[in-house]
Amino acid sequence: MTSTPHRTAAHMAAELESQPQTWARAAALVDEQAALPARGQRIAVIGCGTSWFMAQSYAWLREAGGHGETDAFTASEAFVDRGYDAVVALTRSGTTTEVLQVVERLKGRVRTVGVIGDAESPLVGLVDDAITLPFADEQSVVQTRFATTALALFRASLGESLEQAVADAATAVAEHLDPELVDAEQYSFLGQGWSVGLAHEAALKMREASQSWTESYPSMEYRHGPIAIAAPGRVTWQFGEAPVGLEGDVRATGARFEAGTLDPMAELVRAQRVALARATARGLDPDAPRNLTRSVILDD
After folding, report:
1. pTM recorded for the entire structure
2. Which domains does the chain have, with CATH numbers?
3. Percent of the chain that is helix, strand, coil (3-state, to 5)
4. Torsion angle of alpha carbons 47, 53, 54, 57, nearest 10°?
5. Where is the SIS domain (predicted)?
6. What is the Cα–Cα distance from 18 to 24, expressed in whole angstroms?
């Protein structure tokens, strides 16, 4: 990778590294967890971009754990008029136009719960119940800790211990990054079950922060076409356990198979660090990435 003049990404770096602490704090928010929809309720979870991917992970965990039917939608394409008991709106800024529109449409008809980074945002006053995580809010345009902290809150609310995830995140923050991993030509992120959303988020982080060529798929779908892209100098990165035989299939192409051994949320932290390292090497500033703003606010 060609080096260009260094540009700072101080906010992303600091926020990325704080995730072990913010996850532990979210896991201890018992009252906030209790405000989420109760076991047995049929719910939808909406968000845009990063928040949509976290919604996918939460939906899989909640439904697979027997807590109730749970659907995840990007807010602009949300089918929320399906008799849901509640709709959870996930947004860092609380100002995203599509999310606000859905919540306004549901007002007085369906209970809405907002999980929001900015405690002063317009969404706080629109939802029936607001769960604010200001300690996880961010200044960098490229999200890292708010999304994962919200997912930590969701996981804890489902009865899961976050101790190992927090420990793995500390490992991910401290580990030496292999230059071969940082300098790859292309990345394909894969996941199964709840880690599919995390794989999608990892690819988004690489695109946003470093303008890299990245793709993401459910692990079992990767062999149905996308594996054609695998080649020497490229990386296929599995979040969580890989399907039997997949590693061998990837290695046969000459590509690097990165078998994630940490909690999948902590593997996302590793991917965030690679994205940051690539951005720095290219002279890019992910605190202010090309064509992006902290929140998408559409004109009427």
Report:
1. 0.93
2. 10-160 (3.40.50.10490), 164-281 (3.40.50.10490)
3. 45, 15, 40
4. 130
5. 33-172
6. 10
